[in-house]
Amino acid sequence: MKTVSAVSARSQALCHDALVWDAHSCMPLKVGIDLCALARHHAAGIDYVSLNVGMDMNPLSDVIRVLAYFRAWLLERPDKYSIVSSVDDIVAARASGRLAVGFDLEGIVPLMSDLAMLRLYRDLGVRQVHFIYNRNNMAGGGCHDADIGLTAFGQMLVAEVNRLGIIMDCSHTGYRTSLDIMETSLRPVVFSHSNPRALREHPRNIRTEQILACAATGGVVGINGIDLLLGEPTPETMAAHVDHVAQLVGPAHVGIGLDFLFMPEVDDLPDTVDRAFWWPPEAGYGSSFGSFKLFAPEQLPALADHLLAMGYSEEDVAGVLGGNFMRVARATWDVHQEPPDVHVRPARLEPGRAA
Q1: Which tens digits make up the pLDDT trace of 41-60?
Q2: What is the pLDDT of residue 6?
Q3: Which contiguous run of DSSP H or E holds residue 190?
Q4: In the chain, what are the domains?
């Protein structure tokens, strides 16, 4: 049975009945870490969470060991967790009171420039991938670098991601590169945890044209809950970001990607990582992720309250809470399903028009 915070009875019922999807959250990337903090997500009413298992700066050996450990820990607790590969798996996990879990990669350096590695990660539970983590790599440009656009290898990767049925994610990606990806992809593209730059000026946030392009693919923008990218992490602020995107492209293209740091005080980076390179000081990241203020999973019912008060329908709010990302998964993970016929070039969309 899902439990929610003490908010209006209408929002409690909505959060209980809706499928709730967190498109990106983070456990420390360490072998041996206790993942029981995931129970907090489930207790807060979340049905599916995508967990990061590696970034561009993590050595391949570390990524594989972390992924193996996360899988083993979850598989040893089949009464509480389910590693999913399909929408049907999420539905089954929810029906049996378990938290559905998928994995995501933040950057494709762990692929070692080998397309075959993508299939391996998919088969191990990676259901979502974005190509670049802040800094340029062999696929394209990062949001904290000289944006070079999507490379020839990146174009091949987009085709392979589409073919294998993995969700294509543009968070942390450079502006030009993200537009290239969205124009190239035949399936929906998401920003799993990025906020509108019009409300919060930061190079990690996304511009209006990127939001329009995302909706043009049938995709979803997941609102990030970290204060650096959001502002004060309150239901009011989250609702403002949801509303901004919804006003541009319609509520069917907004979701939640909390980027929640379950244990921000744990330093899980290799000693060789140049922190100032990956998280440039001028971007305001600070010396420790532990200094961030976070929108908590337990605040989602209050977010629903605010959206309902703003005039959004229960159907719209249920979509924001998880139904919209579930739609993307249906259109992506099932490789036998034809790509949705919604893709147009970003320039053809105008603000205020829903794709």
Answers
A1: 999 999 999 999 999 999 99
A2: 57
A3: strand 189-190
A4: 9-348 (3.20.20.140)
